[in-house]
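Team,

Forwarding the record for the chain on the shared tracking sheet. I've put the sequence and predicted structure together so nobody has to dig through attachments.
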Amino acid sequence: MAITKDMSIMEVVQQYPDAVEVFMNAGMGCLGCAAARFENIEQGCVAHGIDVDALVEGLNEVAAAHQ
């Protein structure tokens, strides 16, 4: 399953727990906040000034390691 910027943050974290480290390293340390439950990756990146394409690339590396 490829991770896209349209996927919800929590969906990705639930599917790939190792993705938490990628989010944290990118500067998105608020995975426990209410917004993370309904925001998609792109919305979270915009809110935190994070490069969405770079983050999605890192997340997909984690996903590929689990296959």
